[in-house]
Amino acid sequence: MNILIFTAAICIMAAVMTLLLANVIDTVSTEYAEQYARSSAEALSVHINKEIDLVSKMAHSPRVIEWLKDESNEEKMNTAVREMRGVISDLYSYNMYIGLESSLNQYRIGANYMEDDILHINKLDESNPRDEWYFTSIRSGREYILDIGIDWEMQRKRVWIDYNIIIEGECLGVISTGLEFSHMVSEIFSHYEKGGIRGLIIDDKGYILMDSARMDDSEFLFSEFEERIDEELTDAKFLKAVETYLAGVEGYFEDTAAPLVTGISYGPFRTATITPIRVTNWSVIILSGGVSLFDITYFIPILVTVLASLIVVALVTSAANDRLIFMPLGKLDHNLIALRESAEGRIYGADRDDELGDLSKTIQDLFAKANVDALTGIYNRRFMENNLERVMEMLSRANAMLSVLMVDIDFFKKYNDTYGHEQGDVCLQAVSRAMTSGIMRVNDFAARYGGEEFVAVLPNTDENGAKIVAEKLLDKICGLNIPHEASTVAPFVTVSVGVTSGRVEYGQSWKDYIKRADEALYQSKNSGRNRFTFLGMGS
Q1: Residue-wise burial string across 424-450, b where 16 or more C-beta atoms lie within 10 A, e elsewhere
Q2: Which domains, and CATH codes, for the chain?
Q3: φ/ψ of residue 537, rounded to 5
Q4: CB 3.0-4.6 Å disulfide test: which of 204, 319, 352, 513 passes with 281?
Q5: Cα–Cα distances in angstroms (integers) from residue 116 to residues 5, 109, 351, 386, in the given order
Q6: Annotated active-site positions, please?
Q7: pTM
Q8: Pair 498, 524: CB distance under 8 Å
Q9: What is the DSSP pairing of strand 170-180 with strand 156-167?
Q10: What digits encode the pLDDT tens for the residues 126-178?
Q11: Facing residues of 501 across strands?
């Protein structure tokens, strides 16, 4: 009888746990989809808002405005182009287009510094479909217009920002630039599991702009593609909710509102979440499976086994806990403590006075020893090689630019012979600080390559940007005024720099960039030192 009661109790507990688990899965899945919708909407709005701010800076530049008012003045044009180039380097796009209302001339400024500074493309023609962007923007009366279309010069799909240059009520022209479409799709939707979650972006007319299910579809990513949400999905309840939602869309969203959640019956999906994207008239739609992502029957044997096992384990573990768990854990803790020599930073748990605290300190120290140069405090060669490989893999997806600098302290052996190795270490530390103090951006990093050689890695940086960093570095080192009597270049410590830049392609090796930068460094040394030499990856 007791066995029957006990068995019944186990079955009841298993059923209750199954129901609770189903409810938890459903709730968590819905909240998970809502959070994805919010984060996707915010990620895209941040990207676009940054581009809008940069284009706005150009549209309100007095130099640009002066040129647009006096197009034939070559000096004003060159001044405006130089200023615009300084902004282009911060854009995600590779090209910027400018249309002038007075002459209807269209110009292009490219990201390739080997080309002409500015290229006249054609006369804007309202009957030419490729020029429709300009006239649509002029007629809109808005400050800017967002659209997705083809860059006919580069034959790639872009997220376009068309910004009207309006002075005292008069429109002088339009500046247009585009974010790389495939890069945007990958960055926003690549982490979605296609079996459980599908992400789409639609405009205020219901046309599909992005779709996580088509990330491998070249026709969708690189060509004109028009399909409405009601042509892709057929669930009547969902489409009614979308229709009502779109009817309330007026202009561009100023804030990211709370997601709208509605039911849907489409394949494995049971919940749809719609969220507006700030600074656009677009919206993110997240389709999720909810409980359908999990087959609850899979959990029943596991629950029964777990409950039975808990009962058995509870009878025998009290005497075995120390022998089976705590003693091995204590030995492991002591072994890890023996490996730890010092601690310079703090990670979570490092301030605890128990096994977790000891483990945290040890992990912290092992990480530092594996990735940071002990003398200079900057990254070491191991970190540089691993991270440069990862950066190149990321850049190759967007065919983006990468620049690498190889830096060598001039006559460092003579410096050590003259001032001693202890002072040589001080010199290395000073040069390391100079490389990382304000001359590089957040995503750039510097590492000690070996001896007196250093490497700087500059993702999304072209030739011009790399040269600017090299010049700043030379000035920074000279400004340290570290005496060097044995140098034949200057009475103070100087460096020689090799610079290379290239557009990262799939299959390239990071060693190619290091080798090219080293060749450029060799030329700097042969040319008198205290200078930089640039060698492009393709030259």
Answers
A1: beebbeebbebbbeebbeeebbbbbbe
A2: 2-50+192-293 (3.30.450), 60-178 (3.30.450.20), 297-371 (no CATH), 381-534 (3.30.70.270)
A3: -65, -30
A4: 204
A5: 87, 8, 59, 37
A6: 452
A7: 0.47
A8: yes
A9: antiparallel
A10: 999 888 889 999 998 889 888 887 777 667 777 888 999 998 888 999 998 87
A11: 403
